[in-house]
Amino acid sequence: MPGRYTMQERLAGWGPQGQARLAGSTVVVLGMGGLGGAAAMLLSRAGVGRLRLVDPDRVALDNLHRQLLYDEADASQAAPKAQAAARHLGGINSEITLEAIAEEFQAGNGRELLEGADLALDCLDRPQPRFVLNELCVELGLPWVHAGVVAAQGQVLVLRPGLTPCLRCWFPEPGEPALTSAHDGILGPAAAMLASLQASEALKLLLGREESLLAGMLVARLWPPSFHEVRFNRGDQEPCPVCGY
Fold first, then answer.
1. What residues have CB less than 8 Å from 184, skipping those under 6 apart?
2. Which stretch of DSSP H or E encloses residue 194?
3. Cβ-contact 48, 27 below 8 angstroms
4. Bridge partners for 52 per DSSP
5. Domain boundaries in the chain?
6. Which of 58, 89, 86, 59 is CA-nearest to residue 71?
7. What pTM was computed for the model?
8. Contacts of 203-212 spanning 24+ positions with Cβ under 8 A
9. Are 100 and 85 in contact (CB under 8 A)?
10. Rounded Cα distance, 235 and 225, in Å
């Protein structure tokens, strides 16, 4: 009889050895909304051994169109997202370890929240904590995968300190975004799509399949559909003050 992971173990370069590697991995998911919930669900189903789920917010009814882990009962109880996510993920895969942390990721607790991680997923919804994450990951040498979504579009970016440009290289002067969810909304399928792309890059990193990683920033739009990869070009910019790239 096929086992839980048989179908993915058949993938080239995966096998039982890759599955064991996933089982020994720890991933920190920062933000358990439309991106983080779906990405965490995919990683839990894939058998990543430990997921640390970080989010200070509570489930609300207007989350349900895009935040796939939660249901009406969670919304009616205003359940803490981290705890609700851990409960649902535990029902999906009882073999993995889930840590629910109902805190906001910031400079004061960031190092502690990343402790012992092999990888971080940026599913945050504001620029400022992303740049805190960037500085900590550069300092710790921790790889991470950024994803963002708004309206019907978003982007995915793999960041490996010492090997790739950091987030500050890509965005030297972080400013106010042109689109915001408060004004422009979020298409549920767009959030799920970006989360799937983010989880896929995370699995490649955990399995050591660097040759298959996204090389630039993948920009995806669903309405109307378009996909393109932007390659980093420093041009005449000064070296990055965070990573020196």
1. 150, 151
2. helix 188-207
3. yes
4. 28, 99
5. 12-230
6. 59
7. 0.96
8. 203/22, 203/43, 203/46, 205/119, 205/143, 205/145, 205/158, 205/160, 206/21, 206/22, 206/25, 206/27, 206/48, 206/118, 206/119, 207/13, 207/14, 207/18, 207/21, 207/22, 208/21, 209/13
9. yes
10. 30
- Both structure tokens of 21: 């590697």
CATH number of the domain located at residue range(s) 12-230 in this protein = 3.40.50.720
Sequence-distant (≥ 6) Cβ neighbours of residue 53 within 8 angstroms: 29, 32, 36, 40, 82, 85, 86, 89, 98, 99, 100, 101
pLDDT category of residue 235 using cuts at 50, 70 and 90 = confident
Residue type present at position 240: C
CA 44 to chain centre: 13
pLDDT in tens, 61-102: 999 999 999 999 999 999 999 999 999 999 999 999 999 999
Distance CA(243)–CA(226), nearest Å, equals 31
The token duo for 178 is 């042109």
Could you report the per-residue pLDDT of 163-206, keeping only the tens digit for each? 999 999 999 876 677 788 888 999 999 999 999 999 999 999 99
